[in-house]
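A favour, since you know our structure tokens better than I do. Just paste the record in under my message, thanks.
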Amino acid sequence: MPIKQSELILNPDGSIYHLNLKPEHIATTIILVGDQDRVDKVTQHFDSIEFTTQKREFKTTTGTFKGNRISVISTGIGPDNIDIVLNELDALLNIDLQTRIVKKELTPLTIVRIGTSGSLQSDIPVNSFLLSSHGIDLSGMLQFYKVDGIGFPEIEDAFIKHTNWSSKKAYPLLISNDSFLANKLASPKIYQGITATAGGFYGPQGRILRLAIQDETLNQKIDSFNFQGNRITNLEMETSAIYAMSKLLGHKAVSMNAIIANRANGTFSENPKKVVADLIAYTLQKLVE
């Protein structure tokens, strides 16, 4: 059955609605960044650029780095934007946009997020790199999909008990990275741990300005959670959504974090741009080795 026009929306030129892309515009290796200005920070390392476009916060540039075709795409902030980006990237490769029918042979993507994050642990300092072994979703976006079988119920239940998680909030879902890709990007100098993904920057991450929040001690509970040596190391807004959507769609994904803040120590990097630049250079080199 063809997918209806209202469900798979295309622009008049045949490109997919939000990303403004056609299948030939993207590589099967994708680097995701949050900030549209960071796309150029990645592609300045490329040997050549073949295509670039932007619609709203979604900027895409495809080119070649050391003989490898790579696309760099800005997602904007938050799990809701990841929902758009991952669905539309998958549709470009795995749905025939003319017939609107899912292809019999599916093409997997290799997806690497390069983002900034704040450490929750005092021993993970600013200016360090962290590879997310898992993402724990605190946003609730993923519950709109059939996610049975991709989580870790024992750890999720322990987290709920430890934090006295409110039943009014969505069930926290823990999702792992792709182990093959993670091994490719890892090194002894890279920290690893569970990344918590919040659905917002202020209240959902325990920040209080003028609005009271449901649990003012939640961050401390998250910091102190430990399940058989597995602890939550950092907090951001995309990783768990990337991991879950990728796993459900059959893609490989890893999230690389530049630690620019330490919430436990109250410190912030004196040169966050350099930390991000160094992580970009490191990740590109590891990807093509």
About this structure: The chain has a mean pLDDT of 96.
